[in-house]
Amino acid sequence: MMSRTPLILLACGSFNPITNMHMRLFELARDHLQKTGRYQVIEGIMSPVNDDYRKKGLVSARHRIAMAKLALETSDWIRVDPWESEQETWTETVKVLRGAATNLRSGDPTYKGFDLAQLQLKHHYNESLRLLQSKKELMKNKWPIERSTEDPLSYQHSVLPELKLLCGADFLQTFKTPNLWKEEHIKEIVEKFGLVCISRAGSDPAQYISESDLLTQFQHNIFLVKEWIQNEISATQIRYALCRGLSVKYLIPDSVISYIAHHNIYTEESERKNEGDLLQPLKLHNTTVNPLND
């Protein structure tokens, strides 16, 4: 009998605004991982970044959360988690992953993956835990541990889920940006969690990995997913189009288009927001570092 590990995909980003491509990333990743025969993807989570990230043109998290919720009304397995965006300041991606992993595994006395005293992220992913427990109960009732060997999708309901960070392939290239990432955080992400990277035109994730000793060391935990139907929808270009009064229909959901129009979100003024500011991680990681092999 082939046993599959339940897996949850977590994507961190601006989602400014959410696009059809953002949602496609989850679908592509789920298809790829389930075709490996090793995983059963049970949930996708979008975690919009905090306003304090200070990215140019980043509109209020209140709007970004609302638009993402509208867009995901048609999905039965992807949801938005507002915790990261609701903090007083920007939260490093690895801490978001730690918090999610800790809460998803809470109640399991054998789990020793992280130091809970250092996380201080209790109760922030209660919704994740609740949904996971519901799904575990469903699996318990619907798929008992003793399964027919003819069912290739079977997995034991007692298996703890894995959590992986979902991203675009160009995400790997950001690891080389001085002061944007701490090297110990990169190591923790690729070693303890893993990455699922979706390709896009102009990026060569395999090359990014080969140029880094650290990424090469943990390449077994980095899944590269080929997008055969190229879809280069860019949130930045969508904002530019909206500022010019151009149509973005079929690039983002109609419900999101209506929300943007109703609240007049993307304007020339909004694109100037945080102009000239440093990204918050660049302010915090202001010591000289040597990320990866540069």
| Counted beta strands | 6
Write down the Rg.
Answer: 20 Å
Strand portion, in percent? 5-15%
Please bin the fraction of helical residues: 40-55%
Along the chain, the helix and strand elements come as: EHEHEHHHHEHHEHHEHHHH
Low-pLDDT parts are: 107-127, 142-157, 287-294
| CATH first level | Alpha Beta
GO molecular function, one term: nicotinate-nucleotide adenylyltransferase activity
EC number: 2.7.7.1, 2.7.7.18
Family: Belongs to the eukaryotic NMN adenylyltransferase family.
Cofactor: Mg(2+); Zn(2+)
Structural summary, described in words:
With 294 residues, the protein is of the alpha/beta class. The chain has a single domain, classed as 3-Layer(aba) Sandwich (Rossmann fold). Helices cover 40% and strands 13% of the residues. The chain is built from 14 helices and 6 strands. Strands 3-2-1-4-5-6 form a 6-stranded parallel beta sheet, with helices on both faces. β2, α2 and β3 form a beta-alpha-beta unit. The radius of gyration is 20 Å and the shape is globular. The C terminus is likely disordered. It comes from Aquila chrysaetos chrysaetos. It is found in: Nucleus. It is an enzyme of class 2 (transferase). Pathway: Cofactor biosynthesis; NAD(+) biosynthesis; deamido-NAD(+) from nicotinate D-ribonucleotide: step 1/1; Cofactor biosynthesis; NAD(+) biosynthesis; NAD(+) from nicotinamide D-ribonucleotide: step 1/1. Its EC number is 2.7.7.1, 2.7.7.18.
